[in-house]
């Protein structure tokens, strides 16, 4: 009887440790997310399942997941970091006055025939607009520029609202890939 009780206790401990480790990994290190919507097309598709890395600090052009003002999590690309000026002119991104290439937009830019993919704007024209991205905040945009609700509509994002960055699609299996 004692041997059976001891074996049951060992299995229970192993199960509790496994559950505890899974909770720590999910809460502090990595979490799954499902892409909901078309705002990151063509880079990400509706229904893509991804891994969110909660370690590290967002860098320019990272794809991040954050808590949006609508009590929903959004997935967007970091364009402007604290202290940056950001503007679009003639479908070209300018950060701190320098033009930046956005190769992830090439597919859409080639398909557009009725004007620019990204309408002209400056940071001062967005909600709560300022000349530069405020300290502790990020300017984010979806890759599907014509159909993305992003910093152009909701303003800059406080860094503490960022859950993490993501670049691994693990589902559907035929679409497993790293995204940039």
Automatic annotation (TrEMBL):
Organism: Lederbergia citrea
GO MF, one annotated term: signal peptidase activity
Gene symbol of the encoding locus: lepB
Protein name: Signal peptidase I
Protein's cellular compartments: Cell membrane; Membrane
Spans through the membrane: 14-35
Pfam family, any one: Peptidase_S26
EC number: 3.4.21.89
Active site residues according to the UniProt entry: 39, 76
NCBIfam families with a match to the protein in the record: sigpep_I_bact
């Amino acid at each position: 009887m004692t041997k059976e009780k001891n074996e049951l206790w060992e299995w229970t401990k192993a199960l509790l440790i496994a559950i505890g480790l899974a909770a720590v990994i999910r809460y502090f290190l990595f979490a799954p997310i499902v892409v909901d919507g078309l705002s990151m097309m063509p880079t990400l598709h509706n229904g893509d399942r991804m891994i969110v890395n909660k370690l590290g600090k967002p860098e320019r052009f990272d794809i991040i997941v954050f808590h949006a003002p609508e009590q929903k999590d959004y997935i967007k690309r970091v364009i402007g970091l604290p202290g940056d000026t950001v503007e679009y002119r003639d479908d070209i991104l300018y950060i701190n006055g320098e033009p930046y290439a956005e190769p992830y937009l090439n597919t859409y830019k080639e398909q557009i025939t009725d004007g620019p993919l990204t309408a002209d704007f400056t940071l001062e024209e967005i909600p709560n607009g300022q000349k530069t991205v405020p300290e502790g905040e990020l300017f984010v945009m979806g890759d599907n520029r014509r159909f993305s609700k992003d910093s152009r509509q909701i303003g800059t994002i406080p860094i503490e609202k960022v859950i993490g960055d993501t670049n691994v699609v693990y589902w559907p299996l035929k679409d497993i890939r790293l995204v940039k």
